[in-house]
Design brief:
This protein has one domain. The chain is 41% helix and 17% strand. It is an alpha+beta fold. The radius of gyration is 15 Å and the shape is elongated. 20% of the residues are buried. The protein is built from 3 helices and 6 strands; from the N terminus they run βββββαβαα. The protein starts with a strand and ends in a 5-residue tail after the last helix.
Length: 108
């Protein structure tokens, strides 16, 4: 379960959700004018991530849940990345900063 899908929140006069993956870091979602469109896009993203992998995505219903899940997974992947480097293995890029919680879409 590597993808974390955030809740739909108000953003830039519309409705949006963010996602986090260890490969891409935090991805800002597009701001939809209608909440129904944001729900459709979020559900489509969740379904596309789960194809053939039952635990491929964690969906969060609250901003606190999303922030905690991202921080937990970021710490885990950073530790794995450091362990890999110390063994001379390949490294992955993780683009989530220590202040990621403040960069995530904030609730109104």
């Amino acid at each position: 379960m590597h993808t974390v899908v955030g809740p739909i929140l108000t953003k830039e006069g519309g409705y949006a959700f963010d996602m986090w993956t260890p490969e891409e870091g935090l991805s800002r979602g597009y701001a939809y004018r209608r909440i129904e469109d944001a729900h459709y896009a979020r559900n489509a993203e969740i379904r596309s991530r789960k194809r053939g992998r039952p635990l491929a995505a964690l969906t969060c219903d609250t901003l606190d849940e999303f922030t905690s899940a991202v921080a937990e997974r970021d710490a885990t992947f950073r530790a794995l990345d450091l362990e890999s480097r110390s063994r001379g293995g390949r490294t992955s890029s993780i683009r989530l900063s220590d202040t990621a919680a403040s960069a995530i879409v904030t609730a109104p």
